[in-house]
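Field reference: "sequence" (input) and "structure" (output). Example, PadR family transcriptional regulator:
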Amino acid sequence: MDGSEPFEYGDEAFAYEFHGGRGGRGRFGHHHDGDAFSDWNGLHGGGRRGGGRLLGHGDLKLLLLALIEQQPRHGYELIRTIEEMFHGQYSPSPGAVYPTLTMLEELGHASVANEQGGRKLYAITDEGRAFLDQNRAAVDAMTERTKHSARLIAKLSLPLAVRKAMHVLKHAVLMRAGDWNKAEAQRVAAILERAATEIATGRTDEA
């Protein structure tokens, strides 16, 4: 699924779980060079948050540990970082995050420094790094499930009219099949680029 199709059965099932049906859990994971989320660039928060539970306890533990492997973080910062990964459409509750951080500390996977004002800064320990190294396959799987869920959430947050228009556009391009020449390719590319610019800026050429 590339995000250009209209609302489909797989999306519907995901939306049902995302909004709380059967206590649904999301799917998540790819890890590279000790940074499980090195290519999550350009994601921004904002917008509503879903009511469903997207992270199981096991995934949340791996996700938090992978994030503090990148750099020490406060609990609030971890919550905001995860929210940004989900384009502002999902945010883990403090009631899930802070007990999990406490568990990581008790396991010896995280250390805590108390800063001025009582804020706790969580950092990974050598034991935590060893744990991640021993469970890279699980970290990879978690990261891919997370990215997949984030893509679906972003898609489902679009208005239905926009999703349908995206499908119509994709269909129109694919229907051209092999009927292309250089001039036609440039014409279509110019149309798509102009549309992308107008969508991104919120303005039209006439404005």
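Residues 1-36, 38-52 have pLDDT under 50 and may be disordered.
The helical segments are 9-18, 57-70, 75-85, 94-106, 126-134, 136-156, 160-175, 182-201.
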